[in-house]
Amino acid sequence: MSRYKEIDLNKISEYSINTRSSKVNTSQFAREYEKGSTVASFLKTIPRILKGDDLKQLVTVIVQSAKARKPVILMMGAHVIKCGLNPIIIQLMKENVISCIALNGAGVIHDTETAFWGNTSEDVAAAIDDGSFGMVKETPEIINNALEYGVKHELGYGEAIGKAISESNCDYQNLSLLANAYRLNIPVTVHVAIGTDIVHQHANSDGAIIGELSYRDFRIFAQHVTGLEGGGVVLNIGSSVILPEVFLKALTVARNIGYQAHGFTTANFDMISHYRPMVNVVQRPTQKSGKGFHFTGHHEIMIPLLAAYILENL
């Protein structure tokens, strides 16, 4: 027998499980998948528990916002384009779900190359050793020429590129986010950090022009953020630094001017959890009202799932 005193479990008080409050009920469980099912049937198999329930809540708010013509703002890192997701984003634009898109500078590069040549994303590891990385001739020519036109006509960065692609005879412009947004009159704002993009390596790149058009896009973006009074959605997909920072500044400008941009919903989608998207998108903007969600997973799987869920509920 042990020298040490043991607690007497016979003294505990018990109660019936029938009176207990439980967080999970079988009504929330996943459903069996039936071969040959429709997408709508498949979506019903997702359990309404944890992230499954979060996704359902987010989709409900996105659909409500789209129907009410409240902003549904999509902020995207360039990897989303490299994952081949342009057709899905374009479909959401055409269905009047997305009202504004914000990109970083790399997003413009991948979208432009996709539109003109049907391929993008060079092998950096293979090109960095000999100094040829980013030294293609055509991409900076198209982008920088479009920006030069844009500054003369007081266009935004995304607007200038979208106009150039849509008015060209390139073979794949139907797959361009920028061209489709331009035709649909949906603002695409581009937020550039000087020195981060391959087009900045070329002599025909003008920092003053880049700065002027990107700063105009910040003002356009901030104006769109003012519409988040009493509802709307902000989605951040794959931008870990630039766009979460831009959004927080645009939001504080809107509130500072007097717009009551509160009570909206945010969501961050990424392959891993990063600090800035969590605090600048999910937490801080909704800390007094509204709600923020976070979903972890690969874009090429999560975004088609999200889009299918939205389109089936429109």
What does this protein look like?
This protein has 314 residues and is of the alpha/beta class. It has a single domain, classed as Deoxyhypusine Synthase. It has 13 helices and 6 strands. A 6-stranded parallel beta sheet has the order 3-2-1-4-5-6, sandwiched between helices. Strand 4, helix 11 and strand 5 form a beta-alpha-beta unit. The longest helix has 19 residues.
| Poorly predicted parts | none
Number of helices: 13
Order of helices and strands: HHEHHEHHHHHEHEHEHEH
Taken as a percent bin, the fraction of beta residues is: 5-15%
Provide the fold topology.
Elements (H helix, E strand, L loop, with lengths): L38 H5 L7 H17 L4 E5 L2 H4 L3 H9 L5 E5 H13 L6 H4 L10 H15 L4 H10 L10 H8 L3 E4 L15 H19 L7 E5 L4 H16 L7 E6 L4 H9 L7 E6 L2 H15 L1
Parallel strand pairs: 1-2, 1-4, 2-3, 4-5, 5-6
Q: What's a quick, concise take on this entry?
A:
It is built from 13 helices and six strands.
Jot down its keywords:
elongated, 314 residues, 46% helix, alpha/beta, Deoxyhypusine Synthase, single chain, 10% strand
